[in-house]
Design a protein that fits this description.
Blueprint (H helix, E strand, L loop, with lengths): L1 H46 L16 E7 L9 E4 L2 E4 L9 E8 L5 E7 L6 H10 L4 E8 L8 H8 L14 E7 L8 E5 L16 E7 L4
Antiparallel strand pairs: 1-2, 1-9, 2-3, 4-5, 4-6, 6-7, 7-8
Helix pairs in contact: 2-3
């Protein structure tokens, strides 16, 4: 009886030892897999390019506002205006329209003030002129065309936009694509402007040129 007891105890201890060894091997394998996966995840995060405000290509310096904008595509896709990661106007927001689309932003805080569009094909230029005259000094002004933004523009409207820093507005023609960022009270011409002429030989879309895009960093207005 004593011999049998010794054998049973020995078998039990041997079984326990084997099970514990197998369990430790599995634990080591699982921990190794977890650590390896964590290392791969960390490497993936480190190689993933950073995202900047409005999806621009590089970060803006201090006391600057990030912006990105695009004109409309033919008469199908509306323009888009983003400032400080805030989409102010787009087809998704359903606040864009044929003509010239305008977003106003506080030059000191970067906060949006107003968004409007003015039909320069079938509308009246007078409300647009009154709107331009009402813009307060220190306001950032962003504009983008959709479909046609020039037919109803007259000399007075073009002059008011030129005073915001635009140089291309005098040449803006029927169905041209144009994006512009300037400011009320600006003392120099704005560096933020893109213009593509409507040309049947080079148009990407039938009757319309390709979309024009622009991004950059707007200096914050200082007192």
């Amino acid at each position: 009886g004593a011999a049998k007891l010794v054998v049973v105890v020995a078998i039990f201890l041997l079984t326990f030892y084997v099970i514990s060894q197998v369990f430790e091997i599995k634990m080591d394998a699982n921990l190794g897999h977890i650590f390896a996966r964590s290392a791969l995840d960390a490497a993936a995060r480190s190689t993933k390019p950073p995202r900047y405000k409005c999806g621009i290509s590089k970060a803006c310096p201090e006391k600057h506002f990030a912006f990105k904008m695009a004109s409309g595509a033919a008469n199908v896709v509306g323009p888009k205006i983003c400032v400080e990661d805030n989409v102010l106007m787009s087809g998704v927001k359903n606040n864009v329209g044929r003509g010239i689309n305008v977003a106003l932003v506080n030059g000191k805080t970067g906060e949006p003030l107003d968004t409007k569009f003015f039909d320069m094909w079938g509308g009246d230029v007078a409300p647009f002129i009154e709107f331009l005259k009402s813009i307060q000094d220190g306001t950032i002004v962003l504009m983008g065309t959709y479909d046609d933004g020039a037919t109803k523009l007259n000399e007075e409207a073009r002059k008011l936009i030129a005073e915001l820093g635009s140089t291309s507005i005098t040449n803006l023609g029927f169905r041209d694509n144009w994006v512009f960022c300037g400011g009320k009270g600006i003392k120099t011409k704005s560096p933020f402007e893109q213009h593509i002429k409507n040309n049947k030989d080079t148009n990407k879309y039938e009757g319309w040129p390709e979309v024009v895009e622009m991004e950059g960093c707007i200096p914050q207005k200082q007192d």
